[in-house]
Amino acid sequence: MIDIRFYDVILDPVITEKATLLSEKNNQIFFNVALKVGKSEIKAAIENLFHVNVKAVNTCIRKGKKRRYKGILGRQSDTKKAVVTLLEGQSIDFSKGL
Length: 98
Known about the structure:
Distance between the termini: 13 Å
Strand order of the largest sheet: 1-2-6-3
Helix content: 25-40%
Strand content: 35-45%
Radius of gyration: 15 Å
Structural class: alpha+beta
Oligomer: single chain
């Protein structure tokens, strides 16, 4: 049974050219995750949502930048990315959905 909190941990997959190349070459998948979650929570969410085995989780926080729009100073939000390395033979197919 899937716990509803796992959907709050994983916000969305990062589908870029660089992320696609790494997923084919190194079996790594990129996700945007909530700021306050740890690596063990990310690992549990990935394993339960996608039914795969996770080898390692690396995270990085991108600080929000200051932007000016029509003379008004604003700030982008901070974001956190997780790089999930899967065991050999495991894969995640985003085209079929959850």
